[in-house]
Design goal:
The protein is an alpha/beta fold. It has helices at residues 2-21, 123-139, 152-164, 177-187, 216-229, 246-258, 276-293, 306-315, 331-336, 348-364, 366-369, 394-397, 404-415; strands at 34-40, 46-52, 69-70, 112-116, 144-148, 169-172, 192-196, 210-214, 236-240, 263-267, 297-300, 321-325, 342-344, 383-387, 391-392. It folds into three domains: 1-107, no CATH class; 112-214 and 348-387, 3-Layer(aba) Sandwich (Rossmann fold), CATH 3.40.50; 216-347 and 390-423, Rossmann fold (3-Layer(aba) Sandwich), CATH 3.40.50.
């Protein structure tokens, strides 16, 4: 029985890796031969490698695909290793390969893709991108690609492209599970899938092994608590600035779960909030919703909308209290001045740091790479790590040092002076 299992494992692996390792082509420069090496470990895993015929007729060193382990108990289904590059050198009289012409399979040719649904100029995603790239450099990962695709179809296409180019790992948000499902499930056939930000509750269903993000429902619930504490009892608007984003819906759900009054969801068509026209349009739609419902509270779900919302409330002379779930450079000033009831940080830098640490773990840890062999069904037990939100309100501000505004202005002058110019006189 044991021998049959071993034989079955070998057959499965030979078939699976043969397509990859056998990507040796007959070109004008000649041909080469490869073979698959297989060994079984004491823990039951089966490991595969590729060897190439050398000029002297012997076999070269074993090339080890980064994803090369079949876990115990897997049978009756095809599995694939990660790609291994096999070169064909200049033609020789005997058709053999010159020694040393074979490139390594573990080089930077296998990219790590980070794909999210935000515009690169959105404050949250700008901070995420910068932190991700900085973390990649600090961790020594030279082949990390970070890309934002607000359009769902383009987001899915970017994931598909990473799969086609042999990415070892793909980290992505899940704002629209239905629109991304096919692309995410396809990742599991060849790459390690990490998810982050939106979509924690569906991460396992699409094959994610680990998910990092803000606890969006708790953030919404904390917002509701802030309105309750401020004595707000009437309608509170929950402003949805992205047409399809499960994480934003979770924030509104959390708000409804804790707020003592009624919550009305307002969908605005303000685009990606990266230019003045987008904010003008958002302000008009928020103003219309406040006046139509006589709202006593407004919570916006992107830090970029904090000043737009507070400015709108002031312009229409509304008494509505405004809160924001999202990082905003101006938030401490707005809270301190009483224009903003609260701001809840959304963890852009923390999420970027965790994602890059996961990629680094895959890069250096064979055991982590072995998780590529998990089936989609097994991956439903994904590890979910959620950041508990932090509320910035008047009570929080009261613990700041007396000269905090001057210090904050000095820091803001270095990277976001235009966002706090009204609070930081020269």
């Amino acid at each position: 029985m044991l021998r049959d299992k071993w034989r079955l494992c070998c057959l499965v692996l030979l078939g699976a890796i043969g397509i990859v390792a056998g990507a040796v082509y007959a070109a004008q420069s000649g041909e080469t031969e490869v073979r698959v090496a297989v060994q079984r470990h004491d823990d039951g895993r089966v490991e595969v490698a590729v060897q190439q015929r050398e000029a002297d007729g012997g076999w070269g060193d074993r090339q080890l695909p980064t994803a090369r382990f079949l876990p115990p108990g897997v049978s009756g289904e095809w599995r694939a290793s990660s790609p291994v590059s096999v070169g064909v050198g200049p033609a020789m009289s005997d058709g053999a390969m010159p020694h040393g012409s074979m490139p390594s399979g573990d080089g930077p040719g296998e990219p790590y893709c980070v794909v999210h649904h935000g515009a690169d100029t959105d404050p949250f995603w700008f901070a995420f991108n910068q932190t991700a790239l900085g973390s990649a450099a600090a961790l020594g990962l030279t082949n990390v690609e970070v890309k934002g695709e607000p359009d769902v179809a383009a987001h899915a296409a970017a994931i598909d492209d990473c799969v086609k180019r042999g990415a070892l790992a793909i980290a992505t948000t899940i704002p629209d599970p239905d629109g991304l499902r096919d692309s995410l499930v396809a990742v599991r056939g060849s790459a390690f899938l990490i998810t982050f930000n939106s979509g924690a509750e569906v991460a396992g269903l699409v094959g994610s092994t680990v998910h990092y993000g803000l606890n969006d429902r708790v953030a919404g619930a904390l917002a509701g608590g802030e309105f309750n504490a401020a004595g707000v009892t009437g309608t509170v608007l929950c402003v949805l600035h992205e047409p399809v984003n499960i994480g934003l819906r979770d924030r509104c759900d959390g708000l409804e779960s804790s707020y003592g009054g009624s919550v009305e969801r307002v969908r605005i068509t303000a685009g990606d909030l990266t230019d003045r026209a987008s904010h003008i349009a958002a302000g008009r739609e928020i103003a219309a919703a406040i006046m139509a419902s006589q709202a006593e509270g407004v919570v916006v779900l992107n830090g970029a909308l904090a000043q737009t919302a507070t400015g709108t409330v002031a312009a229409i002379r509304s008494e509505a209290k405004v809160g924001v779930i999202g990082a905003a450079v101006a938030a401490p000033f707005l809270v301190d001045d009483g224009a903003l009831l609260f701001a809840i940080a959304d963890g852009s830098q923390e999420q970027a740091t965790h994602v890059l640490l996961a990629l680094k773990n895959i890069d250096v840890n064979p055991a982590a790479r072995a998780l590529l062999s998990l089936s989609a069904a097994q991956a439903q037990a994904t590890t979910t790590m959620l950041i508990r939100p932090v509320v910035l309100n008047q009570a929080y501000i009261s613990n700041f040092p007396p000269n905090w505004r001057a210090q904050a202005c000095a820091l803001a002058q270095q990277f976001a002076a235009q966002l706090v110019s009204e609070f930081c006189p020269e």
